[in-house]
Structures are given as C-alpha cells and as structure tokens.
Amino acid sequence: MMAISRKILHLDLDAFFCAVEERRSPALKGTLFVVGGQPGQRGVVLSASYPARRHGIRSAMPMSRAVQLCPSLTIVSPRSYAYGHASQEVMDYLHSLTPLIEQVSIDEAFLDLTDLPEPGILLARTIQASIRDRLNLPCSIGIAANKLVAKTATDVGKSRHRGDGPPFAILEVPPGEERAFLAPLPVQALWGIGPKTSPHLQSLGFQTVGDLAAAAPADLARHFGKMGVELSQRARGIDNRPVGGGHTAKSISQERTYDQDVADRKILETTLRNLSEAVGYRLRQDGICGSTVRLKLRWSDFSTITRQTTLDEPTNQDTRIYTAIRTLFHAVWKSRQPVRLLGVGVSGLGPPLRQLSLWENTTEKEQRLLEAIDKLRDRYGEPVVRRGLGSKTRTKPGGKTGGTTTEEN
User: Fold this and answer.
1) 320-378 pLDDT tens trace
2) What is the DSSP letter of 27?
3) Which residues fall within 8 angstroms of residue 74, CB to CB, at 6 or more apart?
C-alpha cells in the first residue's frame, strides 16, 4: 500500500509590518515608506514597502542610510500591538482550517493539510484569497511534502517577484521532486545555512545545494560533525519533522529574526520589549499566566542558546516579563555582539492566582490598567494607548517622559 504524501504549507505574510500600516492608512499603498525609528535617534528599518525596496532599502538598515538612499522616504513609527493583533487574526483563521499549525514567528506559520481532500495548490489559493479579502493582508505560500522544502518554496516564489506590489507568490514542489527543486539553488538558500557556514561550504567546492546532495554524508561529517549529516539530508530534501499542533499549548512565545545581524543595544532591547508586550497580550487574551520566562538568542553564526528563569509568582504583565527577559539577555550578551534572532517565551501556564487582600497592591493596579488598555486595543484593533517605560527608554512628543502615551487614530 502506497504511503500518503504529506501536504505541508508554509505561509509568510508579505512585508507584514508595512501591510498592517497600509491597512490602517490606505494612502500609504504604492508609496516609498518604512516602519522603524527616526534617523536622529539611531533608528533602524524594521520593514520596507516594496517600492522602497527597489531603492535598495531593506530591514535592519540604519534609518539614516535609508534616508540617504531615498530622501523622500516616509517613516512610520512601529506599533507592536497592531502587529500582534493582526497576526492573531491570521492565526485564528488558520486554526479554523486545521489544528496542525506551527507558528514560527509573528508573520510565518506551517500548516499540515494532509487530511483535507483538495489539492495543495487549490488550498493555497483559497487561503491566500481569504486572508487578502477578509483581513486585507498579502501573503505568499510554499507547498511541499515537508517543512524544509515548503519554506524554501516560499522563499523562491517571493524571490521571483518583480514590481512595486506584494508578491502574492504560490509555489508548489510536487512529491518526489524535492531534490531536483533544491539542486540548482545556491547553498545559502538551504534552510539553516548561515552567513558563516555558506563561505566555508563554498571554499570546499560546494556552490549549490545539488553539490551538497552529491557529497558523501561521511565527507560532510568530517568537516561539520553531526551537522554534516543533517546538511546531507536537507540537501536531498529529506525532512520528517512534524508540524506542531493538536495539543494544549505548553508555552506562548514570539520571535524576531533580523534580515541582517544587529549589535546595537538599544535596538535589541526595544525588540525584547516589543516581544514581551506581545507575549503578555497573548497571555491575557487567553486568560492565563506563566511562571517561567525564557530567552531565545541566535548569534550571527546561527548557533542558538536559551536561558530561562522562574518567577516568584505567575504573571501575564508586560513589565514583569520584560524585566526578567532583559536580565537574562544581559547575562549572556556582550557589548556590540551581533545577534540574528531574539525570542521571548513564557511557560508554566495556568489560571491567574487571585490574592485576597484588604488593599489593592501594585501588581493588581498594574493588572487593572492592562485590562483597560487591552479593551481599547481589542475595540479599535490597534494600540490607541501605549505604556510609557520611563525617560531612559521612551520619550513622548515634546520631550516629556514616562506615564501613558496616547496616539491619534
């Protein structure tokens, strides 16, 4: 009896932060704009519109450089809660299709749709159209029999895009054609090969994924140890990892991968703060708290470490999560050390603990404030109110600091 081939989809929201801003302000569509910090404040580009990309502007570029490349560039300040809210809308829709979902970042997820009768290409077109029509967001999709090839298909589909609009790419790799699809791609296109491994492979004569696939696994193991065997399997399109899902969540997390390594302390701390806020919001939406805070950090050579700490009591409050994660971060990060990825997670999940007391303590006041802010965010679908984090981390217009900052709709 022939084994049923899996039907794995990889979905990537196109220029996600920019797409959310265009959803809020349609006049931005087709214009030269970026999401990020101001050039005079050592700001960095978080996301660039497709017209801006044609001018050479890319994520993680210093904003001062982006303005040099395009003096007429419009800079939109980031709104982390708006992106978290939009991401959750997409994930809620995907969960209505299947429980076998693995969200890998705020704008990226895998789906296992093997049990659905429709062809993968038809499912991808339906999903793409639904997200466009229902949520007004563009996405690209790769389809294959495993996660590695599905993700690569998305990347290749998007790379073929030309024009000022989102790619809306869909690319399918039929079962049995994985190795042939990967073979002509440069080695750096293979998932897991970073900017340091790629030159090493090329110096050994491996220019394409096909070169890697043709090498004896033992030869690769001599050069790269256990990773050499994995490289051999990946190059041949072999990936048996399941798509996560179908079980109760053991943790809630958010990650941010930089297009280029970042070594600026302020940028890294801002990312950690935004991720902490997004995780806290998710916890409160689910009505749960967590007792363990976890940091995920990937260095420029793609080596990854995790660190975690257990809190005195469970929490779903942004500030407590960020305080813990910042301590973990500075225990391992050295000044100016390049970082590829940051992740914030909370585990040890359970219902909130209610304290009985005659007086409302600081934690309870914080919770009441967050609940009020969340109601506004849920109602308007964006962060109409943002928490100030003090004079050292955020400045209001006019030079005032701290407190609560209100943004106009």
Assistant:
1) 999 999 999 999 999 999 999 999 999 888 776 543 333 334 455 555 556 555 555 55
2) G
3) 28, 31, 32, 33, 34
Q: Specify the pairing of strand 289-299 against strand 339-350.
A: antiparallel
CATH number listed for the domain at residues 180-235: 1.10.150.20
Q: How far is C-alpha 15 from the chain's CA centre?
A: 11
In the set 21, 89, 102, 108, the catalytic residue is 108
Average pLDDT over residues 119-137: 97
Chain segment 155-214, per-residue pLDDT in tens: 999 999 888 899 999 999 999 999 999 999 999 999 878 777 788 889 999 999 999 999
Q: What pLDDT is recorded for position 237?
A: 96
Helices (H), 333-361: none
By CB atoms closer than 10 A (0-12, 13-18, 19+), residue 46 is: buried
- Cβ distance 76 to 35 under 8 Å? yes
Per the rule left: phi > 0, alpha: psi between -120 and 50, beta: everything else, 60 is: left
- Average pLDDT estimate for 60-65: 90
Backbone angles phi, psi at 120, to 5 degrees: -55, -40
Is 366 considered catalytic here? no
The C-alpha atoms of residue 142 and residue 127 are separated, in whole angstroms, by: 12
Q: Any idea of the CA torsion for 246, 93, 272, 389, to the nearest 10 degrees? A: -130
Please state the CATH superfamily assignment of the domain spanning residues 1-175 in this structure: Reverse transcriptase/Diguanylate cyclase domain (3.30.70.270)
Q: Would the pTM count as exceeding 0.90?
A: no
* 3-state secondary structure at position 113: coil
Both structure tokens of 68: 């040099």
Strand-pair category, 33-36 with 45-48: antiparallel
Superfamily of domain 251-406: DNA polymerase, Y-family, little finger domain (3.30.1490.100)
